[in-house]
Design a protein that fits this description.
mainly alpha, 13 helices, single chain, MetI-like fold
């Protein structure tokens, strides 16, 4: 029987070695760190007020093109707002919505998956049918309906995304619990009189955390795309809040000549989502007990 060289290393050193040997993981980590730092420092590094309009400065090109200047590094939009400042401000909105919605969705889906997988019977059947019904409705249609019902606002947007995406966690956790509840440590806990709730929370949940962590990571990227989609359609956060999706939508009529209005917010979405997905793939490899 042969072993891989890194199998003899302690856990932390092995994970670090896998990260250093994974170009995708390093790129993903670097992109995520940059976006997080930009979002955290947005009020201090933004050169202009992202919401300030100045029609005398509208449609200025980026600094490296003819007619551009260093004062507006990425140019201005059709209302004279600084594109660079709006991209920076949009990072804060996207990350806030992505993280909050992903964790709230997990808080809904994980307990329901635990309950359905361990209890089984009518509860499993009821929750599974509810999940089937929700999955039968296209996400965007359901999200638009809920967003229109709740109205605009950042908390409402997070709630909309959470209640329309909890099924992902429910399905994965339920499947993991169905397998784990037949393990010997579960039977041992039953034999000493542990309650069903204690077994599910104290014994099964810690052993299925790895796939949950990976799903949370990947769901953050999905939530950012969903938020951008709703903002593009004019739903979600109020119109005075700069978001990447709304910035992309605002430049649609100017793509032929003033392409930078939509390009840079769109590029920000692409790089952020790519970084999170690469980091999530790396976490999946590291946390895989069979890896």
């Amino acid at each position: 029987m042969t072993t891989r060289p890194d199998e003899c290393l302690p856990g932390r050193r092995r994970r670090l070695r896998r990260l250093l040997c994974s170009p995708g993981g390093l790129v993903g980590l670097a992109l995520v760190v940059v976006v997080v730092m930009v979002a955290a420092l947005a009020p201090w590094i933004s050169p202009h007020d992202p919401a300030r309009q100045n029609l005398a400065l509208r449609l200025r090109p980026p600094a490296w093109l003819e007619g551009g200047g260093a004062e507006y590094l990425l140019g201005t939009d059709h209302l004279g707002r600084d594109v660079f400042s709006r991209v920076i401000a949009g990072s804060r909105v996207s990350l806030t919505v992505g993280l909050a919605a992903a964790f709230l969705s997990a808080l809904i889906g994980v307990p329901l998956g635990l309950a359905a997988g361990y209890a089984g019977g009518w509860l499993d059947g009821l929750l599974s049918r509810i999940a089937d019904i929700q999955q039968a409705v296209p996400f965007l249609v359901l999200a638009i309906a809920v967003a229109a019902l709740l109205g605009p606002g950042l908390p409402n947007l997070v709630l909309v995304l959470a209640i329309t995406t909890w099924v992902t966690y429910f399905r994965v956790v339920r499947g993991q619990v169905l397998s784990a509840r037949e393990e010997q440590y579960v039977w041992a806990a039953r034999s000493i009189g542990c309650s069903a709730a204690r077994i599910a929370v104290r014994h099964i949940l810690p052993n299925i955390l790895a796939p949950i962590i990976v799903i949370v990571t990947l769901q953050v990227a999905n939530m950012i795309i969903f938020e951008a989609s709703l903002s593009f359609l004019g739903l979600g956060v109020p119109s005075n809040v700069p978001t990447w999706g709304r910035s992309v939508a605002g430049g649609r009529e100017y793509l032929a000549n003033e392409w930078w209005i939509s390009f840079f917010p769109g590029l920000s979405i692409l790089l952020t989502v790519m970084g999170i997905n690469l980091l999530g793939d790396w976490l999946g490899e590291v946390l895989d007990p069979k890896g």
